[in-house]
Write a structure and sequence with these properties.
This protein is an alpha/beta fold. The chain has helices at 19-32, 55-66, 116-137, 162-175, 184-194; strands spanning 7-13, 39-45, 52-54, 69-74, 77-79, 89-90, 92-95, 100-104, 143-144, 158-159, 218-219. Bound molecules: zinc ion (ZN) (2 copies).
C-alpha cells in the first residue's frame, strides 16, 4: 500500500536513541530519498518498556495511532510468527498492508556501547536498517548483496543469506557493507514510482517488480533486512 509517503513519521517506540541522534538519522533518510521524502516528524510513542513485541502487532498499533508513512524504532526484540526460531527475531520489517515499517536496535550492537566509535557504529547500523525498511515502504524489494551503488558500497536494499554469514557475520558483511546511496535499479524504481531526482543517477536499467503484498509481513531476518 502506498499512500502519501512524502512525510515520514519517525516514531521512537521504547527506544533509548536520543532525540538528537534520531534527528541525524531523519536528515540522512531525507538525503538518501532526496525528492521522494520531503519532511520527517519525530514522535515519541508512549509505550510500556517490553523486552520483545510482535512486529506485525507493532506496525498495526503505529498505523492506527499515526497513519500515513511511519518508521518505528524500538529497543525491543521484534518477533514474528515464523515457526523457525532462527528467523523469528528480526532487525526490521514492513507491513505490506500499510506504510509502516519497524526497526529493532536490539541486535545492532554486538559489544557494549562504551565509546563514541561504538555509538557511531550503532547509529550507522540503525540508519542502514531504517533506509532498507523505508525503501520497502516506498515499494523497493530486497535484492542480492552484490548490487552496489556508484560509490562502490552495497545498496541499502542488499541482503545476504543468513545461514551463510550467521548473525554477527551478517551485521558486518551486509549491514556494515551498505552505504546510503541506492543502486541504479533502485534509483530507477524510485524515479519511476515517485518522480525522485537523484544527483548520482545517470543510468537506467530494468525496473524492479515489487513483491510487496505477496507476504503477510516482509520479514527482514529471513532475508535479514
Ligand atoms: Zn538497490
Ligand atoms: Zn528487506
Amino acid at each position: 500500500m502506498l499512500g502519501n509517503t512524502s512525510v515520514l513519521h519517525i516514531v521512537r517506540a521504547g527506544s533509548d536513541i536520543t532525540y538528537s541522534s534520531l534527528k541525524v538519522i531523519g536528515n540522512r533518510i531525507l538525503d538518501a530519498f532526496h525528492g521522494t521524502i520531503k519532511e520527517f516528524k519525530l514522535t515519541r510513542h508512549k509505550a510500556p518498556v517490553v523486552d520483545s513485541i510482535d512486529a506485525y502487532f507493532l506496525t498495526k498499533i503505529l498505523h492506527e495511532e499515526y497513519g500515513g508513512h511511519v518508521l518505528g524504532i524500538t529497543d525491543a526484540d521484534l518477533k514474528t510468527d515464523d515457526a523457525d526460531t532462527f528467523y523469528n527475531s528480526i532487525f526490521g520489517g514492513k507491513n505490506p498492508q500499510n506504510d509502516v515499517a519497524v526497526v529493532s536496535t536490539k541486535k545492532l550492537c554486538t559489544d557494549q556501547i562504551d565509546s563514541v566509535k561504538a555509538y557511531d557504529l550503532f547509529l550507522e547500523r540503525t540508519l542502514k536498517v531504517s533506509l532498507h525498511e523505508v525503501g520497502h515502504n516506498l515499494g523497493l524489494t530486497d535484492h542480492a548483496a552484490y548490487q552496489t551503488a556508484q560509490d562502490g558500497s552495497l545498496c541499502p536494499m542488499s541482503r545476504g543469506e543468513y545461514n551463510k554469514f550467521g548473525y554477527i557475520g551478517y551485521l558486518r558483511a551486509i549491514i556494515d557493507g551498505r552505504g546510503t546511496d541506492f543502486c541504479d535499479e533502485c534509483l530507477y524504481f524510485l524515479r519511476k514510482m515517485h518522480g525522485r531526482k537523484h544527483r548520482f543517477a545517470k543510468m537506467v536499467k530494468d525496473g524492479l517488480e515489487s513483491a510487496a503484498g505477496k507476504k503477510r509481513f516482509l520479514r527482514t531476518a529471513r532475508n535479514v533486512c
